[in-house]
Amino acid sequence: MGQLDCKEEVIVDLFAGIGYFTLPFLFKANAKMVYACEWNPHAIEALRRNLEVNGVADRCVVLEGDNRVTAPKGVADRVNLGLLPSSEGSWAIAVRALRGGMMHVHGNVKDTEEDSWTEQVSNSSKEISRSEGHNWDVSVEHVERVKWYAPHIRHLVVDIKCKQIES
């Protein structure tokens, strides 16, 4: 994530933890702002400390509590869903947070089901965006095979691009 150019972007990290993705977005990718959602008080304490130590706390809003309640709506150019084994329960929250842009959807997937899972993520994202009233072209931009999580189980990230359709 740190290799992306996020200079003018607002990002929502739905599962911030101690900052595994939040910090690279801010420090390396130069995000304009990150909304970091987290509910574990110990992780929040570490996240705040990590933001301060790295000098990026002024560009991060830590949203404490359940992201179903705390996640902002319609602000993000990019949403990270870094929850394993599955972030599926938060796909609608991610779509609501976007104003159009990219969703990075993480999941643990059987090696024989990578294509079908990618298609499921894409189709579900399309359905959710329509149900939320968006007129978006939803497409798979990239699939990253991060690492083997267990035998025959791979950590995948599907990048879903949501672009406003000009009418």
Question: In a few lines, what is going on in this structure?
Answer:
The chain is α/β, with parallel strands linked by helices.
Report on this structure:
This protein has about 170 residues and is an alpha/beta fold. The chain folds into two domains: about 1-70, Rossmann fold (3-Layer(aba) Sandwich); about 80-165, Vaccinia Virus protein VP39 (Rossmann fold). It has helices at about 20-25, 40-55, 65-70, 90-95, 115-130; strands at about 10-15, 35-40, 60-65, 75-80, 100-110, 135-150, 155-165. A seven-stranded mixed sheet has the order 3-2-1-4-5-7-6, with helices on both faces. The longest helix is centred in the last third of the chain and has 18 residues, at about 115-130. The mean pLDDT is about 95.
Please identify, by name, the CATH architecture of the largest domain. Answer: 3-Layer(aba) Sandwich
What is the radius of gyration? 15 Å
Q: How far is it from the N-terminal to the C-terminal residue, by CA? A: 32 Å
Strand content: 35-45%
Query: CATH class of the largest domain, anyone?
Result: Alpha Beta
- What structural class do the secondary elements suggest? alpha/beta
Major sheet strand order: 3-2-1-4-5-7-6
Indicate the mean pLDDT.
96
Any low-confidence stretches, pLDDT <50, length ≥5? none
CATH topology tier name of the largest domain = Rossmann fold
Task: Report the sheet with the most strands, covering strand number, pairing sense and barrel closure.
Answer: 7 strands, mixed
Name the CATH homologous superfamily of the largest domain. Answer: Vaccinia Virus protein VP39
